[in-house]
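Allow me, if you will, to draw on your knowledge of protein folds for a short while. I have a record of one protein: its chain in single-letter code and its fold written as discrete structure tokens. Kindly check, if you would, that the fold set down in the tokens agrees with what the sequence suggests. Thank you for your consideration; the sequence and its tokens are set out here:
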Amino acid sequence: MLAISSSGQSSLGTDSAGRSLNEQASRAEAQSQMGSDSQRAGTIDGSVGPTLGPAESPPPVELAEALRFDITPGWVMTRWPRVSAGLAELELQGYRVPLVTGIAEDDVAGALTYYFNARQQLERITFRGTTGNAGKLIDYLVRQYRFGRRLTNDPRIFRFEVPGPRGEPQSWLEIRPAGVVKSSEPFRRLTVVLVLHRPHQ
């Protein structure tokens, strides 16, 4: 499980071969600055995410409910009190919502975007946010979508991937420690970027 202590030491446990995955991690200031649990929303493309007032605080949504591919645009519209729908790209329509899975240290919060094709079928899910401990997210992605650890040349990055048919990454997850780790902000120790494509049948 990935966690960052107040001293900046990162720990991910061990991989399937039993190798130690502890790394001394540091990084520059995070690309997107997140607010409080109900407000800290960034976007996968760097655009400005939704700003929420107290009356618009998003309801908690479990990972298993949010990260699945039987979702429809209608469900998105009814599940969240506020949805940003003006996110069209080539052959896809995006719907962005603020995701908060709970108030525990291993919960995540940030901006979640669903991309649908012309048949209203979900093709891609993206997420950019923060967490205090990425273990629960990693466990879910490994179990549900068969993500695997991919070592990189950058010691600041913990990367997990799902290989495509030609070996290229079909889906991927990157986790980095925040530029400044504050004991007063345990939910913002790590920044998380996830790109999840519909699994091949």
In short: Strands lie at 3-4, 9-11, 23-24, 93-100, 108-116, 122-131, 148-150, 158-163, 169-177, 190-197.
